[in-house]
Amino acid sequence: TGGNLALEGFxxxxxLWLRQNEPNNYARLSTLLLAKDYVRYRLTGEIATELSxxxxxxxxxxxxLCWSAEALQMLSLSNEILPRIVGSTEIxxxxxxxxxxxxxxxxxxxxxGGGADNAAGAVGSxxxxxxxxxxxxxxxxxxxxxxxxxxxxxxxxxxxxxxxVVGQWYMMGVILSAGxxxxxxxxxxxxxxxxxxxxxxxEAKKIxxxxxxxxxxxxxxxxxxxxxxxxxxxxxxxxxxxxxRAHMIRSVMEGVCFALRDSLDLMRPFIGGEPKIRAIGxxxxxxxxxxxxxxxxxxxxxxxxxxxxxxxxxxxxxxxGAGVYGNIGDIMDQWISTSLERDPDxxxxxxxxxxxxxxxxxxxxxxxxxxxx
Length: 373
Fold this sequence. Notes:
Layout lengths: L10 H11 L1 H5 L7 H10 L3 E3 H4 L5 E2 L4 E2 L1 H6 L9 E3 L4 E4 L2 H7 L6 E3 L4 H8 L7 E6 L3 E7 L11 E4 L6 E7 L3 H11 L7 H9 L9 E3 L17 E3 L7 H27 L4 E5 L6 H11 L3 E4 L5 H12 L6 H8 L2 E5 L3 H27 L1
Parallel strand pairs: 1-4, 7-13, 13-14
Antiparallel strand pairs: 2-3, 5-6, 7-8, 8-10, 9-10, 11-12, 14-15
């Protein structure tokens, strides 16, 4: 019923680890709250969570939008430790008198449900309707797509969670090293930290698409989507005497785009048409990386007038919860505007299609070595 593989980062596996390894601390457990829900408790005295974060616990029935009796029974957990569930734009409590005095706020300020980080980020970038896809290059990388019903990849390579938009879910693929891979490259080239990303990318611009045959697997911290392989590692493949540091920089950027494409390709059967891709995160500030995404994805990529984040999405949820706007879709139509659209270059796309196939085959070839290390 949880709709996702039991990965280490989800709440239920952590809870089972606590029960097995720290039974004394587990015995002290009264109520299970996520980080933002503890803040809610301190502000309002109310114990609650909301659907998008609850979906990441592996204890939620994401189809029926309630705690899963089946999961609780299977894991021998009591539903008494679980908070009530509210909607992301639903008022979950009011700021208490003592907290209001401490923070200088009016007593009774409403506190709404809120959202998980990626759900709030999707709202903040206007990814609130099916067919609109978010491509985020930050420390990690995310491809996220809203759906009108829960969608599941047959091999469970993608995540499926409840959206912060009423009546929607989203499918998501995550890569663990995106902007962090470029940071790793920068730190190698400039341990003193005086070499900017702009200089790095200016070097990469001088190299033709495909980095003259140099491929990079960005699995520096293992990989989640689509491999779920904690043993995976970064690889440069195809180095020769004609390559220099600029080739390596561009290859890192291309490898991140290939890794994101793996997730997008898994989502395409659920999109039902050409995806409308919005680039956000630090990578969206690079015209080269945005064009590279368009070429690798073979889809137009737009950026936002302002690079909004999860806090912007949380503010939108609060505006709806307070009754200022009717729903998330209405508010995002007014709050979000797109700027430049980059269309894929057919010549580059043909090149990247060939290289992406080599990229996929490269992982399959070296995976046995990862498993042995």
